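Good morning C.,

I know you're traveling, so I'll keep this short. The sequence:
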Amino acid sequence: MSETPKGPENPGLPDQTEKFGPDFQQKLQNLESGVSLEEQEVIDALPSGSALLIVRKGPNAGARFLLDQDSTVAGRHPAADIFLDDVTVSRRHAEFVRRGTAFEVKDMGSLNGTYFDGVLIDQALLHDGAEVQVGKFRMTFFPSRSDGDGTRAAQ
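The tokens, ready to paste straight into the viewer:
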């Protein structure tokens, strides 16, 4: 029994080459940057106007923090929205502020400073995949996929 070859020579039969859309490219890029499939599913399910921080290095590596309020404070104080229990973190270290679907991070006068993509900052607009360092904690920022890259501010 012989098989009919598939491809452009035989119209009506599927080509052997598959084309992958932007969703596949995004997932591949995330896998290459260290995002697990489980984390990718969580990121994909984020509602509009929210974002996720994932601790990549330092104490609590792998911990996830949802940003879904207009103001989220990270610090060593037990009442902080994001409790980071380490002496390198100030009680009220940094604030994540939502403006529309965009988020920015602001240092709150911390002793060790807040870093954005390796640079000491007072404040910075976050983008997809940005790294924020608070004390020993290195966290990666992921905005809701329904909001694009997460850098659109409210009008």
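Safe travels,
E.
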